Amino acid sequence: MPAGRQGKIRILYVQPGTSIFAGIERVVDTICTELVKSYAAEFDIDVLRITQHKNYPAEPRLYKSVFRPVTSRFDLMRIFRDVARSKRYDLVVIPQIEPAVVFWFARLGHRQRIAMHLHGNPRREATNFKSKIKFFLFRHLVLSKVTSIFGTSPRQLREFGSDFHCGRPMYWVPNPVRRFDPPGDDLTRDPTVVTFVNVGRYEFQKGQDILVRAFAKLHARRENVRLNLVGHGSDKEALAEQINSLGLSSVIRLAHYPDNPQRALYTSDIFVATSRWEGWSLAICEALRCGLPVISTDCEFGPSDILVDQRLGRLVQPGDEEGLINAMAYYCDNIEHERSFSNFRMENIDQYSAENVVHVHADAIRRSVT
Hints:
- The protein folds into two domains: 5-176 and 353-369, Rossmann fold (3-Layer(aba) Sandwich); 194-352, Rossmann fold (3-Layer(aba) Sandwich), CATH 3.40.50.
- Strand 1, helix 1 and strand 2 form a beta-alpha-beta unit.
- Residues 1-5 have low confidence and may be disordered.
- It is of the alpha/beta class.
- The strands form two sheets. Strands 3-2-1-4-5-6-7 form a seven-stranded parallel sheet, sandwiched between helices.
- The chain contains 14 helices and 13 strands.
- Helix 2 (73-86) packs across helix 3 (97-106), helix 3 (97-106) crosses helix 4 and helix 9 packs across helix 13.
- The chain has helices at 23-39, 73-86, 97-106, 129-142, 154-163, 208-221, 236-245, 262-266, 282-289, 303-306, 321-333, 335-339, 342-349, 354-369; strands spanning 9-14, 43-49, 64-67, 91-95, 114-118, 148-151, 170-172, 194-199, 225-230, 252-255, 270-273, 294-297, 313-316.
């Protein structure tokens, strides 16, 4: 085992260069916080932030936060190189394929173990010419030099290993699912309607347009249904236009809870995820944390690894609109029966609580540095 300062293993986690403190950003923050809480005597944890995230927590972090804002691609290379050389890290954990390629080239001449952490679906991420070049470099040059691959889903890792002929060690490191406060007296469901809810960025990947079309047909059959779309993103105007064109503005609501979706979850009956692809799905896990049944497209990769029991929810094949509508209708007709499984859902998802999954992450780190 490498011996760092005071015998600790020195780890650098890299936050993605995004603007919102949400999915990957919250995962990295939570895991690093828990590693410090549980393994302070073993690990020395730093986190590199290269952009200022909106709604970034104001309170000091337990780990060392290294903030180096990036102004250009060349600046990113320089910052990666400077930070990598500033401290003899035993392992750098970097999210996704493209940043891993950039980091690998930036630290040339300075030996450093790299764990590439998959959060999404590599089959969907090479969307432009520059991305394709980086994927080519990763496949034919960088992958064989990477120490290990971390993944958010067992199915994701299996498919990645097959697609990339990966011979590197691969470890499933589950995403932590935060806990919510119990609902207060002000968080109650409307008993006269059945309310569906979706939480996620408003963008093509998350498929809210698919959900709106299916909901419109369900509403034509059952008028006592409502839909809350909770999120933010570039497709908000397109979604609003779609809702208006279908005449559903009175029954579909676009809402934004930037830090905590629990109000929307506790006041709804059924969670529906119609993503075109996922790496995992924290949104599904958080819905289960609140006791809601889940309907999800069986997209690549996460939902089928989460919804392993029909008491948790139901999977619908991608593109099967009638199957989606029928699943939504089933929960309308059986909502009281399904509520009897609320405690089962909450207890099942507890396996992904931060204080539980931190030990899996710690073991993956140990294996990557020995």
